[in-house]
Amino acid sequence: xxxxxxxxxxxxxxxxxxxxxxxxxxxxxxxxxxxxxxxxxxxxxxxxxxxxxxxxxxxxxxxxxxxxxxxxxxxxxxxxxxxxxxxxxxx
Length: 91
What we know:
Layout: H1 2-67, H2 70-74
């Protein structure tokens, strides 16, 4: 009778150890997935911030152009389209 109790307790202890190891492994996988998801969300947030900065910069640039009068838009500097000599471009 004592042998069967010891065997039963040993089997229960082994089962508990295997269950605890399995639970720990599963939690490790969940933690890895959560970490990967957090990194992904951080990158997405950074990309959204960059897009917003580009939109704001574009609006400021457009506002500067919109402030110009039509007469100012017709006056084009000589070197606007082609770079002058010595600027490193083709002349």
